[in-house]
């Protein structure tokens, strides 16, 4: 920075050139305002209710005092010129004081656009904090990716707790309500997502195993011939009438045995559906949907 030596002996040559040199030298301080940027609050200007205190601002490359007061929408730059008497007796403008304050005009600036400048140590500390936060965010992102790779979206799991305790990132998988999952295969198990099976079943004739019912008497069968039972007769040399070894049958009159039919046994059973559910514990199925 430029300096002046005032301690030389022999009389200091103080003239307008020296004063201009001084003025040009301290204009360098205006450059420091660019560290904060245009329309910056360098110091002061604290807001209390609707009042703003005095301070220092930087506007269009110039450091200026700020004269506070009742806040308004815009800020203007004002000049106050002071005249001093010269040796020739004429008063001329010597001191020109520039400052910013609230007001209106063609070159007004919005007060809302002014930004408060933070000291460099504070900015450095915030930068370090942001660096830490950024590093933490990156780690969280990596963990989320790892979680997605470890637990893929759509994974269904068994949940043996109430619905209000389902953890974050999971929802109830309602497609499996009242159903047991089975691995995809062939036949009835070929279509993914198909719903098959039943909780109860009624047997049909084709599902019964082949079997015979033995009458609880000395005959293998009973044979009837009409609406009236007559005398019995002996059948010899043929067992097609189911007469057995003794080959006796009941008949009507002299009806031939080929007109005879087997009697039906008493009907049993009610055809009720029976339970085909395997031993089961009721649980909920939950599906991983990821985190927001």
Count of individual beta strands: 19
Q: Count of helical segments?
A: 2
Q: What value does the average pLDDT take?
A: 79
Query: What order do the helices and strands follow?
Result: HEEEEEEEEEEHEEEEEEEEE
Instruction: Report the β-strand fraction as a percent range.
Output: 25-35%
Distance between the termini: 57 Å
**Protein structure class:** alpha+beta
Lay out the secondary structure:
Blueprint: H1 16-26, E1 40-44, E2 47-48, E3 51-52, E4 55-59, E5 62-67, E6 69-70, E7 74-85, E8 91-102, E9 109-110, E10 115-116, H2 120-150, E11 156-159, E12 170-172, E13 200-201, E14 223-224, E15 233-234, E16 248-249, E17 261-262, E18 274-275, E19 284-288
Parallel strand pairs: 1-10, 5-8
Antiparallel strand pairs: 1-4, 2-3, 3-6, 4-5, 7-8, 7-9, 11-19, 12-19, 13-18, 14-17, 15-16
Please explain how this structure is put together.
There is one protein chain. Among the domains are: 16-117, no CATH class; 119-146; 156-198 and 277-288, no CATH class. The chain is built from two helices and 19 strands. It has helices spanning 16-26, 120-150, and strands spanning 40-44, 47-48, 51-52, 55-59, 62-67, 69-70, 74-85, 91-102, 109-110, 115-116, 156-159, 170-172, 200-201, 223-224, 233-234, 248-249, 261-262, 274-275, 284-288. A hairpin with a 5-residue loop joins strand 7 and strand 8. It is rod-shaped, with a radius of gyration of 55 Å. Residues 218-253 and 257-261 have low confidence and may be disordered.
